[in-house]
Design brief:
There is one protein chain. The strands form 5 sheets. An 8-stranded parallel β-barrel has the order 1-2-3-7-8-9-10-14. Strands 15-16-17-22-19-20 form a 6-stranded antiparallel beta sheet. β15 and β16 form a beta hairpin. The chain is built from 20 helices and 22 strands. It is an alpha/beta fold. It starts with a helix and ends with a helix. The protein is globular. It is 30% helix and 16% strand. The chain folds into 3 domains: 361 residues, Glycosidases (TIM Barrel, Alpha-Beta Barrel); 70 residues, Alpha-Beta Complex (Oligo-1,6-glucosidase, domain 2), CATH 3.90.400.10; 82 residues, Immunoglobulin-like. InterPro entries: GH, GH13_cat_dom, Glyco_hydro_b, O16G_dom_2, SupH-like_C.
Length: 619
């Protein structure tokens, strides 16, 4: 296919790399990562082949939720640097051809944000309806509480104003009232501000919760009383799409002027999809190539709506949480079927949208879309100790320790990541095989400082480690054994393998753009799929078992006029006139194969040997 096509929709075959500025590199020696340190390490990202950098929140914050409790959406946290240093970083990243996106966290603010301080000062405050208030809290379903280890309700009583405010997450993160047009206008100003400073898009936090129906009907008080007696209704499950039920919205003082101002023009709640369409349209006007990466952890039929269905005018890319979870189930079983079934179930997104694939992200490794029995299988295989689990639904571990550091398994999993249909997203440190530190609280276990060298503090900072937000990883996966500088010198290291995967992925647009097909191998442990576009074909084969396998693969529309050339190692496989190819895979083996005419095939070791022999004969 033409490369000019891939440059227009750049996110379709991008390599996205997520990092937290605070834990990446300390540039001034105070124990806190900052933009100065990040800028000095941009070349590492460039050498790896990263094309898009995703920054976790870097805004001013009391830091009670790792930066997701924001007090100013228009500035940089002083601990991390200044706006000037942010702009310098953006300039260097752009010089290296790396786009930058940032977390858009507009579900809520910190309770220390000036808006909320003003809102709680009086029921007549101009910011009162920027948040969600009620005289009587609705009954909660325990499943609706996102952090059950810290919270037991979605409502918190504010003694100063005598009302309850709504918080989907922590009580110190009051939800913004996105039903209020003034709030939506402010969100677009935030988007515009950072786009003017060079951002190419945003990762949208908790998309289904952007607009929530917590409106109270006339009998809400009675329902609350009935709930106390065990007869009432319940809040919707936090993992499902929030409904937008009919009924009058009540903000501020209930059914008075505040309630009318907070509603849409037709008197009802704005639809979350209308809000996303408006946000995407605004971004397209400012920068036609900007993108929205959505955190939408829903079943496939519900998730598809957040692309904008067939129109593709809402979220540009959505994370494939279901595929990720089924991958871990496949690894636990040593069988490809769970992942293959997910890929067969997964719908194609609209033509200008895409899936984002990942091995893990910055949160817990959630397993909420598995059945209880399936989740227990994954727990038993990769997190048997209760301390390794979190919220009874996920793991707070990184991949290498879960796989006992087995390089065959680790390399196979990342080969799988880069070959699956979708845009691969890496979490910092994955490229070198960092582990977790379970001594850190909760999800912080996987947010340990980046490991650059085997020396003091892993090269992250020269400060006393007691000043670090999170402790360094220790032991087998500590910086003495796992770091960038040593792996950069080792041609057989994981870092070099990841660099090769990125390089080959970028050279195989079929994987990102092509129509994919799951192939029948007859081997339960093998996932085989092909991607085709414009007459070009790439195959990807992955063995989930600790034993060698051999099988014959039927390849429709191919014959002995083509050969299969290995892209990750040297080798060429012939195709019979009937379209059959004999394949071998070692234990946890992985192969990428390009189908092409012999005269157009990529070079392999045999070609080099023939060339050298011809030179000797000519001499």
């Amino acid at each position: 296919m033409r490369l000019t096509n891939t440059s227009d929709l750049w996110w379709k075959n991008a390599v996205v790399y997520c990092l937290d500025v605070e834990t990446y590199a300390d540039g001034n020696g105070d124990g806190i990562g900052d933009f100065r340190g990040l800028t000095e390490h941009v070349d590492h990202l460039d050498r790896l082949g990263v094309t898009c950098l995703w920054l976790m929140p870097f805004f001013p914050t009391p830091d009670r939720d790792d930066g997701y409790d924001i007090t100013d959406f228009y500035s940089v946290d002083p601990k991390l640097g200044t706006l000037g240093e942010f702009v310098e970083f953006m300039r260097v990243a752009r010089d290296r051809g790396i786009r930058v996106i940032a977390d858009l966290v507009v579900n809520h603010t910190s309770d220390e944000h000036p808006w909320f301080k003003e809102a709680r000062s009086s029921r007549d405050s101009r910011y009162r309806d920027w948040y969600i208030w009620s005289d009587t809290p609705e009954p909660d379903d325990p499943k609706g509480v996102v952090f059950p280890d810290k919270e037991d309700s979605l409502w918190e009583f504010d003694e100063g104003s005598g009302q309850y405010y709504y918080h989907r997450f922590y009580r110190f993160q009051p939800d913004l009232n996105v039903a209020n047009p003034e709030v939506r206008d402010e969100i677009t100003r935030i988007l515009g501000f950072w786009m003017e400073l060079g951002l190419s898009g945003f990762r949208v936090d908790a998309v289904p919760f952007l607009v929530e129906d917590v409106g109270k009907k006339e009998e809400s008080a009675k329902e609350a009383e009935r709930a106390k007696d065990g007869k009432g209704g319940s809040r919707p499950d936090s993992r499902q799409e929030p409904p937008h039920a009919a009924g009058e919205w009540q903000g501020g003082q209930g059914a008075g002027s505040h309630g009318r101002k907070a509603a849409d023009d037709d008197g009802g709640l704005p639809d979350v999809h209308r809000f996303l369409r408006d946000m995407r349209a605004f971004m397209n006007r400012r920068n036609g190539s900007a993108m929205l990466l959505g955190e939408v952890n829903l079943p496939y039929p519900d998730l598809l709506k957040y692309f904008g269905n067939d129109l593709g005018d809402e979220v540009t890319m959505c994370f494939d949480f279901i595929g990720m979870q089924r991958m871990y189930l496949a690894l636990a079983r040593g069988e490809a079927a769970p992942l293959a079934e997910a890929l067969l179930e997964r719908p194609y997104p609209p033509s200008d949208c895409h899936w984002a694939t990942f091995v893990r992200n910055h949160d817990e490794l959630t397993l909420d879309k598995l059945t209880d029995a399936e989740r227990q299988e994954v727990f038993d295989a990769f997190g048997p100790d209760k301390d390794m689990q979190i919220f009874d639904r996920g793991l707070r571990r990184r991949l290498p320790p879960m796989l006992d550091g087995d390089p065959r398994k680790i390399r196979m999993v990342y080969s799988l990541l880069f070959s699956l249909p979708g845009t691969p997203v890496l979490f910092y440190g994955e490229e070198i095989g960092m582990g977790e530190n379970l001594k850190a609280e909760g999800r912080q276990a996987v947010r340990t400082p980046m490991q650059w060298t085997p020396h003091k503090n892993g090269g992250f900072s020269t400060a006393d480690p007691s000043s670090f937000r999170n402790p360094m990883t220790e032991g087998e996966f500590g910086p003495e054994n796992v770091n960038v500088s040593a792996q950069r010198r080792d041609p057989d290291s994981l870092l070099m393998w990841m660099t090769k995967l990125v390089e080959q992925y970028r050279e195989c647009p079929e994987l990102a753009w092509g129509r994919y097909e799951i192939l029948d191998t007859g081997e339960p442990s093998v996932l085989a799929h092909r991607a085709d576009i414009d007459g070009a074909t790439v195959l990807a084969l992955h063995n989930f078992a600790d034993e060698e396998v051999s099988f014959t693969l039927r390849l429709d529309d191919l014959d002995d006029g083509q050969v299969l050339t290995d892209l990750l190692v040297d080798g060429t496989t012939k195709i019979s006139k009937d379209g059959d190819a004999d394949i071998e895979l070692g234990p946890y083996g992985c192969r990428w194969l390009r189908a092409s005419e012999p005269e157009l095939a990529p070079a392999d070791a045999a070609d080099v040997a023939d060339s050298e022999a011809r030179e000797v004969q000519g001499a």
